[in-house]
Amino acid sequence: MLAFANAHAMNSLVHSVPFFDALHSADMVLRDGSGMATLFKLLRLDPGRNLNGTDLIPRLVREFDGRCIAFFGTQEPYLQRAVQAGERELAPRSRFVSAHGFHDNGVYVGMALLHKPALIVLGMGMPRQENVAAALRASITFPCLIVCGGAIIDFLGGKTPRAPLWLRQKGLEWLYRLAIEPKRLFQRYVIGNPLFLSRALRLASFRRS
User: Fold this and answer.
1) Neighbour tally for 162: CB within 10 Å
2) Most C-beta atoms within 10 A of its C-beta, which of 63, 85, 176, 187?
3) What is the pTM of this model?
């Protein structure tokens, strides 16, 4: 189980013990975003590389070319468009299975047990995808990488455009996403980013005391 931690994840786990448990149980958690780099620096830790899922997951899909891959998440027509993009651009030798992101956990477990994908990409958003990932890992008995992918299926399916490269390089993709989806992302970024910074400063102060 591979997950990503960003400022939104940190804000979310404050209010959800099941999400905290699911994220904490992941086999690997990668830093995603400049907010987490700020947190690490405040704690006097090396932030390491920024390995956001939007850039990393397509590379992972390419590595699994030739093996069964599952995309679980988002909704039609974006899900099918993402599958087509995967078949055309990322893993042309793979067999893809897919399901939208609004089923009960048992549906995804059943599909995984039936098709035995080597890679499962979840695109359901936090905290749901982490809970689904934990349920899948508890049920699967064959080798499989389960990736908590956030908006990656939406990106592949053309629902959500990427920010220009120069904005991504400056760590400002969140600002671009806020500009194109202000209503949905207002709470996450306009309220959430200052809240995350406030919590990061308090944590750093506590650690130094």
Assistant:
1) 14
2) 85
3) 0.92
